[in-house]
Each structure stands twice: as C-alpha cells, then as structure tokens.
Amino acid sequence: MAEALASFFTGKVAAISRQFTDATCSSPTSCSAARYPSTEGVAFSSFAPLTENETLALLTRSRPTTCPLDPIPSDLLQTIAPAIIPAITHTINASLTSGVFPTAFKQAQVTPLLKKPSLNPAQVDNYRPVSLLPFLSKTLERAALNQVSGFLTQNDLLDQNQSVFKKGHSTETALLSVTEALKTARAAGQSSVLILLDLSAAFDTVNHDFLLTILSNMGISDNALSWFRSYLTGRSFRVSWQGRLSPAHSLPTGVPQGSVLGPLLFSIYTTSLGRVIRSHVFSYHCFADDTQLYLSFSPDDHSISARISQCLSDISAWMNEHHLQLNLSKTELLVIPAKPSIQHNFAITIDSLSLSPTKVARNLGVMIDD
Hints:
Alpha-Beta Plaits, 2 domains, 5-stranded mixed β-sheet, 4-stranded antiparallel β-sheet, 11 helices, 13 strands, 40% helix, RT_dom
C-alpha cells in the first residue's frame, strides 16, 4: 500500500505536468511566464552568515515538530541547543555561503491522510499527502527566509495583495479585506461576485526553471540564486504506511510541501497573475495559493457574465503558461445581490466548461453566503 500511494501521488502530478509540455513554451527565457520587471541596481547576491545567538534564537523560537527523519526529537534538540549551537551554526552557514542545500535535508516522509472519514480507505485516490521535513531543514529555511523576505519587502517586489509572510497580515486580515469590500458595495446599492480559485496540486507543478528565472529577474543572483537552485532540485519522498516505507520517489517539479519557504516561493511565482486580474478591473486578494477575486457592479449591468468568463479564461491561459492547472470543478462563484429581491442569472463558460453560482462558499476556512 505504501508504494501504491507513492505511485499515485507521483502519477497525479506527472499527469498534470504532461499537459503543459506541448501546449506551453519550453524555454523560460522566451516565455512570458518567467518575465518580471527588471530590478536594475537592486541585487541580493549572497546570504549573510548567522551568529550563534541568531541560530539559537531561530532554533528555540520554532514550534517543535515531529518528523521520523529527525535523528533526535525536535523538543529535545531545543533543550540541548546551547551545547551544540556551534555545530548547528556551522552547518547552516556552510550551506548559505556555499550555495548548496544539504542533500539529507531534501528528503521528505509523507503520511497519507484520508480526505473524509466516510471515504473508502482501500482506494488510493481518497488520500492526500501530508509531507514531513526534518526540523533542522526547516531551521535552515527560516534563516534564508528572514533574509530574502526582507530584501523583497524592502524593494517592494511582492504583490501588495498577497498576505503571506507579511508583517501584520494573516488569513484573518485577507478575509476581512474582502468581506468588508463586499459589505461596503452592498451598502452602496451594488451587487457583487466573489470567485474563489482552486488549483490542482498547485505547489507540486511549479516549474523550477521558470521560478529561478523569476527570482533572477527580481535581483536574486550569484550564490543566493545557486542556493535556491540547490534547494529546489534533487528532492525525493517516501510514503510511510503502517510501519512500512515506499521506495524513494523523485520530485522533478514543485516547491516543497510542508516547507517554510514554499508559500513565499509560490507567491513569487504567481506575482504576475495580479496583472491579468487587474486588466479586467477585478479586485483580488491572495494568501499563498488561495486567490479571491471580487467585482462589484450595478444590479442592471448585463455585461457581468461576459466579463467574468473573459477574466477566468485569461487566468486559465496564464495558469497553463505557468504550468499550473485551474480546477474549475472546485472553483466557487458566489453572487451577492444588492438586495435579497434581486436575482442574477449568470451563465459563465471557460474553456468549454460551465461555472455555476453557489449559495455558500468556503473562503480561507470560513463559510460565506449571499
């Protein structure tokens, strides 16, 4: 069963990725998927080495996690950290200064989790993978995250409507931003639509060459860029099932699930999506791979169906170019009329598929109705 699950998880991502081989460009330098406005004069070429005090702070402030790949439990490691902090600091600095992410830190152990208790546990497609990474691996990631996120924020390189890893931002602030805008529109006598995009295996199909080109265009270069290349490549996972481990399976695409840097790298990868959305005069807000589109309009505006269809069609094309798959069957459309007495009958078609409005939508874990 362990190997069956591992093969299923690998095959699902491979099947999605194969769709992009011929349909999209093959060169990251010639493909608009990898273009980003030039950051001339702005550069992040190397990581600064950590002091022992900085390493100790990173280690002790991190939430202890349980991973079978850890040689000793993370809570015990935190307890004895003062005694071994010179060795840990050396390991982290050796990676940051050499531009090489340790091979031992690139392995993940996956625990399959049944999607719903009512599902048949004998069917592999009823499981989703939960990826566990070594505690020290994530400590090293945090060291890199602190420095690169500071560079990106200082130079205003991240989408202003992306909340992940921004100080004072969270899922709550992302949700509040959207719901308040919808309430304000209704108070002004306008109807609104809220569209919650769903991507199939979003983190898993990220194209490494495209991502590295985007990082380079943002000003990340030399040793720092080499470190990210090493971090992304040569990864593998094993599935653990009832005390048995599957053989290792390679991960040729994607940003690591369960990682510290994964959400930031995905938000960097999708930064140019905002331009597509804004070109259709839609508002939006993102939290990592959760994207909320919304549009307020006069109740007698009959062009909304066509505008939604065109916007989503262009988003789908952008996704394909970036080797991401928009899952229309799970994308939700919520119509919020200006008044309960107003009815909007939208006919939305994208890529020959229809999208029907729903009465209730789950947005960042919160149920929203009209």
